[in-house]
Design brief:
alpha/beta; 5-stranded parallel β-sheet; 10 helices
């Protein structure tokens, strides 16, 4: 018997960056959680270091409606509680990419790669945002739109040509470490599944991860669900 493996990918905003707005959106968060619950995931996976899984679940068990202003608790904890799951799953792996390497890449692009820089600025200035006048579900729908994700992919892959003043291929180095992180996240999720049962796992993760994770899960034989364009 062939068992079905499904992953519901939710590219997310980081709520702490819009704290004042999010503090006034509790009703919209609850509406969003109700929307996601209709997809009936068997597990809720979160962008939290796997090594801290036990601590995350301690927080989950004692959280009684008192959630921090972050997407892990506001969406992930609320959803798992609504579905009466006895635990959540920390599946992140930060990896070997350092802040110094990212700063060097960014500085080099600003200094020597105007085409890449313009693409980055366009994504930042014109990309989906959280604001007071837009319902949270609509903001997520735009963030997870396939055209926007494709533009993100093109921007990231443009880094492959970036070299620093010494000729070091820092763009390739960045993408190599980025891919390693994504592969580890996929492995962490697969390790939560049982071989002899159907699975429908919902993953809440920063939207920049969507383009590569989708490809990796599809290549691994999983059905990838975008909950903003597909029905349950």
């Amino acid at each position: 018997m062939l068992f079905k493996k499904e992953i519901i990918l939710i590219g997310t905003f980081h709520f702490e960056q819009d704290r004042e707005i999010m503090e006034n959106k509790e009703g919209e968060i609850e509406e969003f959680v109700d929307y996601l619950s209709d997809f009936k995931p068997s597990k809720v996976a979160l962008e939290w270091e796997k090594e801290q899984n036990d601590n995350l679940n301690k927080e989950y068990k004692i959280s009684n409606g008192n959630y921090l202003i972050d997407e892990v608790q506001q969406v992930g904890f609320r959803l798992a509680k609504k579905l009466e799951h006895n635990r959540v799953y920390a599946v992140n792996w930060t990896g070997h990419l350092t802040q110094g390497e990212m700063t060097n890449l960014n500085n080099t692009i600003q200094r020597s790669y105007p085409g890449v820089l313009n693409s980055m600025r366009s994504m930042s200035e014109n990309g989906p945002i959280i604001n007071s006048n837009t319902n949270l579900i609509d903001s997520y729908r735009k963030l997870n739109d396939s055209d926007y994700v494709r533009e993100l992919e093109e921007m990231y892959l443009s880094f492959v040509l970036v070299e620093d003043d010494m000729g070091e291929r820092i763009g390739v180095n960045f993408l190599t470490k980025w891919a390693e992180r994504e592969l580890m996240i996929v492995m962490n999720i697969i390790e939560t599944t049982a071989d002899n049962s159907d699975e429908r796992i919902l993953l809440i993760i920063g939207s920049d991860h969507l383009w590569m994770l989708r490809k990796l899960f599809e290549g691994s034989g999983w059905d990838v669900i975008n909950p903003f364009i597909e029905s349950t």
